[in-house]
Design brief:
With 80 residues, this protein is an all-alpha fold. It has four helices and no strands. The longest helix has 24 residues. The relative contact order is 0.18. This is Large ribosomal subunit protein uL29.
């Protein structure tokens, strides 16, 4: 993955930033779907990328909810 959001980057973000990124990604996905429906979409690959970004954000949020990974633990692992 050359650019975009990675799970490691997302794990270091606070919860409020994740919620903001999720909201922005969902809005972008809506707009891309709308463009696809009207025949104005130029980059069909972007649909796939945005869906995956949303899934990554949900995964990180769920990991925190279940206590699998916390922000402090992940930050400490990143420093090693």
């Amino acid at each position: 993955m050359a650019k975009g959001l990675t799970a490691d980057d997302l794990r270091t973000e606070p919860e409020d930033v994740l919620v903001t990124k999720l909201k922005e990604a969902k809005e972008e996905l809506f707009n891309l779907r709308f463009q696809a429906a009207t025949g104005q979409l130029e980059s069909h690959g972007r649909l796939r990328t945005v869906k995956r970004e949303i899934a990554r954000i949900y995964t990180v949020m769920r990991e925190r909810e279940l206590g699998i990974v916390s922000v402090a633990e992940d930050a400490a692992e990143g420093e090693k």
